[in-house]
Sequence to fold (236 residues):
Amino acid sequence: MSFTVEPGQTVALVGHTGSGKTSIVNLMSKFYRHNGEAGSAGEHGRILIDGYDIDRITQADLHRQMGIVLQENLLFSGTVMDNIRFARPEADDADVIDVCERLGCLDVMQQLQNGLGTEVGERGEALSMGQRQLVCFARAMLARPRLLICDEATSSVDTVTEARVQEALGHLLEGRTSFVIAHRLSTIRKADLILVVKAGRIVEQGTHAQLLALGGTYSDLHAEFVRVSQGEQSIL
Ligand SMILES: Nc1ncnc2c1ncn2[C@@H]1O[C@H](COP(=O)(O)OP(=O)(O)O)[C@@H](O)[C@H]1O
Ligand SMILES: [Mg+2]
Fold:
């Protein structure tokens, strides 16, 4: 597979479970090592960031510039404030409030029992899934990463409306080079580049309009997504 992403672009990775989406972002984060040798081109493959081979960048240096939001949100017991601040311990309360405001979710946080001082409980179980997602977005936003990787959670019926989570994600992606393993049609449609992954290969790449016009794998996946999201709307 081969693809190029320009600074600030949002890339959506789409494809069925097991197709290789997580593997791609794990390679980029150096959680996995690719099989090639440092500096070698061609058959073994290379991953370059700003022209630098990631083999020559330490994982620590890479991660300092990278935000990662996982599908299973990692919250620890403590307050909402503590959980957000974890990304940048020197940040003060005003920084945390500012980030929530910029994500458009400060009111959601303030409506919690004790606002930003609410204890989230073991693994965040005192919060709804949507609320947990917003906390993780705020945490990622506070870190100001140049690169963002987001394994988007599938939408769920929740006290935090789907629209709020979508809006916050949009703000988080703004002006940042982002890779989203996308499960929401809205995220996919807005992406600058969609990579369609199938059996370990990128079988199609382009924008939503370009790929729909192709009438291939993406267009089939899209039809599936539409069916699923209509099903969810009828549950609501
Ligand atoms: N560490 C690994 N070693 C070998 N195979 C793996 C490893 N991780 C995942 N796989 C396999 O690679 C394929 C792609 O997995 P993954 O990237 O997790 O897909 P997706 O995120 O699209 O669901 C799957 O067949 C999976 O079983
Ligand atoms: Mg995956």
About this structure: Residues 1-65+146-236 form a domain with the Rossmann fold fold (CATH 3.40.50.300). Strands lie at 10-14, 48-49, 52-53, 66-69, 147-151, 177-181, 193-198, 201-206.
